[in-house]
Amino acid sequence: MLHFWWTRLQPLLFGQVARDKKWIAEHYDYEQDFYLLFLDRRARCYSQGIFSRHDESLEAAIERKLDFAVRSLRVQPGTRVLDIGGGWGAFTEYAGQRGLHVTSLTISAESQRFVQRTIDRQKLPCHVLLEHLYEHRAEPYDAIANLGVTEHLPDYRRTLACYHRLLKPGGRVYLDASACREKHDFSSFIHRYIYPGNPTPMCLADYIAEVERSPFELIELHNDRRSYELTARRWAERLDEAREEIVRRWGEPHYRKFRLYLWGTAHSFASNLMSAYRLVLERPARDENLCRWRS
Description:
By secondary structure, this protein is an alpha/beta fold. It is built from 13 helices and eight strands. The chain has a single domain (2-133, 141-294), classed as Rossmann fold, CATH 3.40.50.150.
């Protein structure tokens, strides 16, 4: 209980951005090899794919999701796209290969190094910054992509205000996230052993309520609960297949905590304790209700 309340108090004392940088580093700054053992082999995407059938490969499902994200943004080669949460470069690589000029934000040094090597190796028209979304300043982008980072941005109003500031009129935002019916914290196990800090599953009702009071228009909404279940199940299976190497390199406790995390995640989606969504938002060419939103 003391750990829970200390976690809640830290953003108030030290600021959300400073705490996020510390907490995200604790999750992502392992050797990248660990995550590559269970993520999809092609894109290394750390969020749900889109499955067309239960026996489809993880790689095919992830590629379908990346294709959906790019098409939803309605962007052409040469346009500027902001990628929030670079991860292991899935969106940056996919979009960069198609001529999009991606700026990728990450607050993990290990992630930044990995994405930069990917950009350099393929000479992609992209770059990666070690920077929090709330700190980022730039000329407005043509589109914004957020693959699985909304859970780490629980202040929906502040996040939407950042999107508005960083997006051209007429531009679109693509995002996907795990979700629950009510806004609450992840389990104490997740907070203590997997994602330290204050990440929370998206509460769809609360998120849409904030969208409705903003200038943004909700263009598309898709339920991905079954797809996230299958994604987590594939991750868990691959983790189990790599058990010997994981135990040898990172130890038995590390393997066991991620095994509980991934199989537990798959169960939560299978039993409808959690869901997942894809959303597409659009900033109108004219923000006629902007004054009301800011008031």
